[in-house]
Automatic annotation (TrEMBL):
SUPFAM superfamilies: TPR-like (SSF48452)
Gene that this polypeptide is encoded by: ccmI
Keywords annotated in UniProt: Cytochrome c-type biogenesis, Membrane, Transmembrane, Transmembrane helix
Subcellular location: Cell envelope
Keyword Endoplasmic reticulum among record annotations: no
Protein name per UniProt: C-type cytochrome biogenesis protein CcmI
Transmembrane segments: 95-115
Organism: Roseibium sediminicola
Length: 377
């Protein structure tokens, strides 16, 4: 209750600080000038009496001067009385003062009693920070974690917990710093490195800086198949103007990806922007659901045989019917996964021959081959 009483008192003081100066009668410049004239004329009358006593002027001259000065003094006095500024404050101003000083705090108090909770007990900050976490607001929970970390700066798990919260609250730099602390204390993790790089990119309005790029590269080194860091690295290549490398990175990312994945649409748009054509994301020819079910009961040798059969079918189709750059790269990569580098080299040679007249597509094939450790001519 003390709080709202103080607020009401401060409201009244604020109103008075504005209205009291307004209530004072302001004298217009004409009034000030007339008052100055009065003072001058009175001084002149005193001077005449002094000169008469000293014998500097005779009685007739003194009388004539007194008459003229008295006439001017009377006129100046009439001007002072007639000035607008001499009037008392108007009734409207007094009413406004009363409303501001009395009615406004009263109305505020009434609204608070109607809509507020004057009986609600005080909630000191310390009590809120030490209360159970259930039902607390996000701001209070963050404040609790920050207080804990201030006392325990080497609690890596605490930094890891608060880092994503900072990002959700629109504080990417604080989030990146928290991830950096967690990594420094607990060691690198792919997820933390990726999220730190993302926070740094968000802080720079989507620009993948050198620091963010290093974080993504470390994440890929820990988990080469991770999609998110590779996605941002492909964006970084495009931002650096390395068009051919960016195209190869997007193709490698999209190769074999689930067309329904949330990130695939954005990746296709980036690739289309670089190549000028929409990539084909139809599902690659592969095993049916029946084949997958049957493969589960196969031995390892039989599974390898089935995979080789599918790869051979893809190779035969590309050799006889031709195919896109993405399909040739998929075939080359499949041979490398099977550990058959010789067949991968042959497929690379065939792909280079198929796109010999298209330098852009040929560069994309060579770049993908270099990433696989092949020496395309």
């Amino acid at each position: 209750m003390i709080f709202w009483i103080l607020i009401a008192g401060l409201t009244a003081v604020a109103a008075l600080s504005v209205l009291v100066p307004l209530s004072r009668t302001r004298r217009l410049p004409e009034t000030v000038a007339s008052q100055a004239d009065e003072a001058v004329y009175r001084e002149q009358l005193n001077a005449i009496e002094t000169e008469l006593e000293r014998g500097l002027i005779d009685a007739d001259t003194a009388e004539a001067a007194r008459t003229e000065i008295a006439r001017r003094l009377l006129a100046a006095h009439e001007r002072v009385k007639a000035a607008p500024g001499a009037s008392r404050p108007k009734t409207g101003l007094k009413l406004a003062q009363a409303v501001a000083v009395l009615a406004l705090p009263a109305v505020t108090f009434g609204l608070y009693l109607l809509l507020g909770t004057p009986d609600l007990p005080d909630q000191p900050l310390h009590a809120r920070l030490t209360a159970p976490a259930e039902g607390q607001s996000v701001d209070v929970l963050v404040a609790r974690v920050e207080r804990h970390l201030a006392d325990n700066p080497e609690d890596g798990q605490g930094w890891a917990v608060v880092a994503p919260v900072y990002l959700s609250l629109g504080q990417p730099r604080a989030s990146a710093k928290a991830y950096a602390n967690a990594i420094r204390i607990l060691g690198p993790k792919q997820e933390w490195l990726t999220d730190m790089g993302e926070a740094l990119a968000i802080a720079e309005q989507g620009l993948v800086t050198a620091e963010a790029q290093r974080a993504f590269e470390q994440a890929v080194a820990l988990e080469p198949s991770a999609v998110k860091p590779r996605f941002f690295l492909a964006i970084a290549l495009g931002q650096e103007g390395r068009k051919v490398d960016a195209i190869a990175a997007w193709e490698a990312l999209l190769d074999g990806a689930d067309p329904t994945a949330a990130w695939v649409g954005a990746a296709r748009q980036e690739l289309a922007r670089l190549t000028g054509e929409t990539p084909n994301m139809t599902a690659p020819r592969g095993p049916s659901q029946e084949d997958i079910a049957a493969a589960a009961d196969m031995s390892r040798d039989d599974q390898q045989a089935m995979i080789r059969g599918m790869v051979s079918g893809l190779a035969e189709r590309l050799t006889t019917e031709g195919g896109s750059v993405e399909e040739w790269n998929r075939l080359i990569r499949a041979y490398m996964v099977l550990g058959d580098k010789a067949e991968a080299e042959k497929a690379l040679a065939s792909a280079q021959a198929a796109f010999a007249e298209n330098q852009n597509d040929l560069s994309r094939i060579k770049d993908a081959a270099r990433q696989l450790g092949l020496s395309g001519s």
